[in-house]
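Lecture notes, unit on protein representations.

Consider one protein chain, 587 amino acids long.
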Amino acid sequence: MKRARKIHRSILHSGTIFTQLVLFTVIISFIPIIFVGVVLFGKISRMVTEELVSSHYQLAAQYTSNLENSFYQYKDSLKQIANNTIVMDTLLGKTDYKNPYAMGTNVSIEINKSLHLDSAELRNCMVYSDIADNKIYGNRVTMMEGASKEIWYINHKALTQDYFIYSSVGKKTILSLIQKIIYLDVTNYKSKYIGFIKLDLYMDKLFSPTVNKKEENYSYDVIVLDSSNRTVYSSNPKYTAITKKISYKELSKNRINYYEDAMVCTGYENNYGLKLIFLFNNKQLANKKSEIERSTLPIFVIVLVVIIITAFIFTRGFSTRVARLIDKFKLAETGDLTLTEEIEGNDEITILDRQFSHMLIKLDRLIKKNYVQQLEKKESEFRNLQLQINPHFLYNTLETISSIAAVNKVFIICDLCEKLGENFRYSLGKNYGEFVTVMQELSHTKNYVYIQQTRFGNKFEVFYNVDKEAENYRILRFILQPIVENAIVHGLSKIVGQGTLEISISRKEEQLVIKIEDDGVGMSAERVEEISKYINDGNIEDKKRHSIGIRNVNQRIKLACGNEYGITIDSSENIGSCFTITLPLIQ
């Protein structure tokens, strides 16, 4: 399997995408072309075959119809002669003529009137009288004893069938049609046999098929069988043996039959029950198929050339666009994130190019953001180091101030020193980490609020509404104090009279919701939109804006918890503001 996969890769994926696509298109085009060609050629061949078969059957039907019409005319003429009153009366001796030859002349004249004896296929027509006491002789009539001496009468039972076949003295094959002459006596309703009529036809002229004038031979060959399946005529001795190999019954079952180099179909003559076998040379079918091949082969060649040219043009354009995209990847790999010219179009390559450009923009912003954050982190660490130069000195100084205030009974200074010292410990403490409990963060915020209330002379009241179950959830350190500071400095400090500040912490479904509400001066909708955009903007190059503390808190929450968390602002002028912090539930 590994070797097969290796061969597969070396064959299909060793060249450029241009070579692969052209090769794939050419190869994959051969399959439908060959399939369509085989199916189409087969279908056209079947259509041509069916068309020729239909044409053959039309010729066969026309031949059969002409043969039946000829037989019908001959039978009708024989019936007219047999029912001719003059002929009957002459044979019975009811005429004024008593001379046998004069009577024979009259009968011959009547026969000539009923038959066109100048037809090439018609050899002779004779009436044989069975009235012994009324002798009659002529060109077309004689007595029965004369017939008994002829070869056809000796070899055939002429009066037992409608037709028979014999060979004449000149070795010509003759088909004789027989019609009995019956006299009906209307007086006593009795019929009397008085003789019969024999009509001789040359079989080679009667059954000969149509001659092809261009090739001066038969356009098809015919084999005629009698009711006993004996061959009575064959236009081509080459095909005479067909009846020994395939019976007429088997040939009649199929619409299309083949024998040697001929296509075979059958027919049936209704007058005398003759069976007809038609053989059409396959040369015409072969010529038709060769003509189809000569006409369809150039079409397939043209189609293949068009496919190759189209595949080349399309693949060249496609591979060029892919190469441009690869060049962009290589340029970005060197560290150059500048955007180059966009690849035009609406396909997947354009989408990849567009997404890659967006990725470069985001990557550039992230790199700059990370760089500034690292600078801010180092700056913060430097400040912390400055504060930690001598923390014990600060604590001792605060305790000294608190002691002096206690001696002088200025207890408010003692409280302020205590709150400020706790804030120092919370800010500089190394045991807290990045996340603290809600109560720890809230305790730090209360110390800050106490100092601010002292500063502003109890200009505002503060209410705390914290759910019991929310006290032990963990949150980021230093996220409440900047929001509370903003509410006091920018909201409550600017109003006339006393204001209120409410801090609410509760669980809502799978989130921890913290609300800092004040009834200060508030903000306009435009100002709220401006601040919201500022605190959520990832572009950290703008550092000279107000509310940078809120922005830093919001960015810290998003970086630590995800973009679905953070700060939302709702405010109205002269009514107040509400800052809502959403955080995940962290135990």
